[in-house]
Amino acid sequence: MQDEYRTVAHAGVHETEVNRSRFLCALAPAATEQEAQAFIATVRKEHADATHNCWAYVIGADASVQKASDDGEPGGTAGVPMLQMLLCRDMRYVVAVVTRYYGGVKLGAGGLIRAYGGAVGEALDTLGTRTRRRYRLATITVDHQRAGKLENDLRTTGREVRDVRYGEAVTIEIALPDADVDAARAWLADATAGTARFDLGGEAYGDA
């Protein structure tokens, strides 16, 4: 797994104008290829009267799925530069649709490449991005008497508490950077006089 990746902070639209053509770049996070395709379909429907609705998306923390479409623009002048902009910004789990309303002036291949790639870059700058980092999941099992203080101490020491479940004992699920696992285990033993259990789980991504 990748240690970290970036994605768009939230869905949104940013508009630019190049030689009287309007370029509207719609960006959205997409957890799956199906989500990306559904977003593209929504934008296409909203802008059915546009000259072109070109798109690109990158799915997977390792960018395992990369797809793009020129939607009628000359081959390689729209979808590919959009995709390249997403990749050069280290964007993952993201979909971009650039809607063009033709303004009467032909841009040429170079102009189109700059316009489509630039629309995505400007939209990323405007809407903002966030970094997602790989964490190890761990489960702490502790008695009820110590649970409240322990949960509070975990939060105040900056460790991410993802879930708390109450049963015969209290189970607290936390997320840790790999480098913090040993220190957290030692801290827990000290904080609970060795009475809490610490079990390492799988891996997940969370906001850095």
Q: What would your notes on this structure say?
A:
This protein has 208 residues and is of the alpha+beta class. The protein is built from five helices and ten strands. The strands form two sheets. Strands 1, 7, 8, 9 and 10 form a five-stranded antiparallel β-sheet that branches. Helix 2 crosses helix 3 (108-127).
Short description:
By secondary structure, the protein is an alpha+beta fold. The chain has helices at residues 33-46, 79-88, 108-127, 144-156, 181-191, and strands spanning 4-8, 12-18, 21-29, 52-59, 65-69, 94-101, 129-142, 160-166, 170-176, 197-207.
Key attributes of the depicted protein:
5 helices; 5-stranded antiparallel sheet; 208 residues; 33% helix; alpha+beta
Determine the mean pLDDT. 92
State the distance separating the first and last CA atoms: 16 Å
Task: Give the SSE order as H and E letters.
Answer: EEEHEEHEHEHEEHE
Structural class: alpha+beta
Please give the count of helices. Answer: 5
- In which range does the helix fraction lie? 25-40%
Strand content: 35-45%
The largest β sheet comes out as: 5 strands, antiparallel
Radius of gyration: 23 Å
Low-confidence stretches: none
- Would you count the extended β strands for me? 10
Query: What general outline do the C-alpha atoms trace?
Result: elongated
